[in-house]
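Re-running Gfo/Idh/MocA-like oxidoreductase N-terminal domain-containing protein to confirm reproducibility after the cluster update. Everything else is unchanged from the original entry.
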Amino acid sequence: MSSSAPIKVGFVGLSASGWAADILGPSLLEPSVRPKYDLVAISTTSPESAKASADKYEEKVGHTIKAYHGDTAKIANDPDVDFVAVAVKVSVHKQVILPVIEAGKNFFLEWPAGVSLKETQEIADAAKAKELKTLVGLQGRHSRAVSKVKELLAAGAIGRVHSTHVVAHLGRELIAWPPVVLERLVYLSKKDSGGTRLDIPIGHQLDTLTYLLGDFTSLVAIDSKQYPTGAFVDDTFKPTGETFPSEIPDHFAISGILSSGIIANLFYRGGNASGPETGRRQYLWEIDGEDGSIRLESDHIQGAAPSIIEPKLFLNGKEVVVEGGEKAGALDSAATAWKEFADGKGNYATIEDALKNKKLLSAIETSAKEGRRITL
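Result of re-run:
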């Protein structure tokens, strides 16, 4: 993708609020990224929201931005658009991205890149047939702490790695999954939504883990639904008094062997109370080698999502000061992904990486459902 001219971006889903508005759009405007991209068009679900978003970003980029709405074939076929970024509700990922692929445009697609393995496979196959260059929003691998871990492992800082384990908590305060849920997010508690705890936070962690340590060759998983019912809160976080049945597990135990021979173990629990008064650890990831250990940890309420919250890093029990750590976080990680893609080199995730990760999640679901080891 490297060239002297900036990549002209059409952005689907860059509206007033949400992940795209908070992280993806602003990261495109970061000083280190801005010269590589030029936002020229925006598409949302209505003419009003599209115009409002275009007006907002025109002030930031200093030129007119085209406003589209509805069918993404319109923005995809704009001759002034080189590249289409898509960050919309996962239920419409396939519907939105296929016209972009048909138009032959390189693209960004937010993770989970489709509601199911079948959809991700269709998207990946279509992109491959068109020989498109792709970027997927698995930005955890660009965390500054994770990048430092990669450097330490490559330098042999802890010797040969034998095992790794993750212990994480996705607390009720996230109000995305039971027992407490925002009314507008109830779809995330549907089994086939593509937005469950397994799909999003655990999916992000697994991509980062396999990026650093290698792919799973086999695994065994169990899950449990400790919170079968969710209680709704409104946008002011006030309980509405209404409840709903949850379709998804909230506790997961995943164990397997990686291609490198490493034993991996992940335990995720969800829905319990968080906060210092509980004494509950939010996130711990240890990598054990024959000569020492690496530890990533966080007590932040969103600490179990290291693709969003930068964890602390320890080598052999001593904290490592990570260069640029004061800037670290989701915005910084997303900016790194944009830069690497524009330069045509680096560790950014593609639709093929998303497909591999989706196959891993599917294996976990199958193992938990059928009670057997799955070979990948």
